[in-house]
Amino acid sequence: MSISKNSQRPFTVIVEGNIGSGKTTFLQHFNKFDDICVLAEPIELWRNCNGHNLLGLLYEDRKKWSFTFQSYVQLTMLEQHTKLTDRPIKLMERSIYSARYCFVEKMKQDGLLSHASAAVLDKHFEWVKEYANVGVDLIVYLRTSPHVVYERMMLRNRAEEKSVSLEYLQALHQIHEDWLYHKTIFSVAAPVLVLNANLDKSVIHEEYMKCEPQILNRTLTVHT
Ligand SMILES: Nc1ncnc2c1ncn2[C@@H]1O[C@H](COP(=O)(O)OP(=O)(O)O)[C@@H](O)[C@H]1O
Ligand SMILES: Nc1nc2c(ncn2[C@H]2C[C@H](O)[C@@H](COP(=O)(O)O)O2)c(=O)[nH]1
């Protein structure tokens, strides 16, 4: 595998959104297309890193485990970005960009990372962005309300997420909004297509279908 920035890469789409916004469901909608290599978030790697459930440790003690967890997220996301495929399109759940701009940013706001730890994560992120093949061609933002995703997350009932609060989701929502909707913080790596992901499952696939042309035809026209 070559991670060099100069190596070829497929038309790369990242789907971003709050916890419980429907990213996995969105990927399932696109699984039927042979041209698309669908890469779900490597959450099972985070739940079992040589036998350590880093996701569980994180939510048990954020202060102690934020740096460890984020270090591994950055590695696993780099693997996803540089994973080779013979398919012309790659669709990824989240990215190194949301890891840094949303989650690390939230950790910094909450004082969960020492300045030294934050500096190391930033150096790693900046090197990867500069020298690795992590370009993105389209961002799909599943825009939701915090109350909606909180209810979905509770219904999904993931063991590690029992301590995740509505306040945390509200803060993550605002960071996503500032990054991808208002575009007032951090750079945006590609054009952003905003979907109303509050819509119920019974009609959400019609909303997902709106971006099939941009993804399948690899076009960048985003009608705001
Ligand atoms: N549009 C929707 N309406 C209602 N429930 C949804 C919708 N999209 C996803 N869900 C449910 O909400 C939970 C989170 O969805 P998921 O796709 O796993 O989101 P994410 O990957 O963003 O965390 C799952 O239980 C899923 O079945
Ligand atoms: N601290 C971080 N947590 C992250 C990151 N990426 C995902 N996650 C967490 C959030 C959820 O509990 C879980 C899976 O996310 P979903 O949105 O798919 O439910 O993993 C990260 O970079 N840092």
Which features does this protein show?
alpha/beta; binds adenosine-5'-diphosphate; 50% helix; 10 helices; Rossmann fold; binds the ligand Nc1nc2c(ncn2[C@H]2C[C@H](O)[C@@H](COP(=O)(O)O)O2)c(=O)[nH]1; 12% strand; five-stranded parallel beta sheet
CATH topology: Rossmann fold
Major β-sheet annotation: 5 strands, parallel
Number of domains: 1
**What is the 3D form?**
globular
Q: What does the radius of gyration come to?
A: 17 Å
Question: Which band does the percent of strand residues land in?
Answer: 5-15%
Strands across the major sheet, in which order?
2-3-1-4-5
CATH class bucket = Alpha Beta
Q: Which homologous superfamily in CATH is the superfamily?
A: P-loop containing nucleotide triphosphate hydrolases
Helix % is 40-55%
Total helical elements: 10
Q: What oligomeric state do the depicted chains represent?
A: single chain
* CATH architect. name: 3-Layer(aba) Sandwich
Order of helices and strands: EHEHHHEHHEHHEHH
Give a written overview of the molecule.
The chain has a five-stranded parallel beta sheet, with helices on both faces. 33% of the residues are buried. It has a single domain, classed as Rossmann fold (3-Layer(aba) Sandwich), CATH 3.40.50. With 224 residues, the protein is of the alpha/beta class. The protein is built from ten helices and five strands; from the N terminus they run βαβαααβααβααβαα. It starts with 10 loop residues before the first strand and ends in an 8-residue tail after the last helix. The chain is globular. Helix 4 packs antiparallel against helix 5, helix 4 (62-82) runs parallel beside helix 6 (115-131) and helix 7 crosses helix 8 (166-181). Ligand LCKSPGMD is lined by residues 19-20, 23, 41, 43, 55, 58, 69-70, 73, 94, 99, 103, 161.
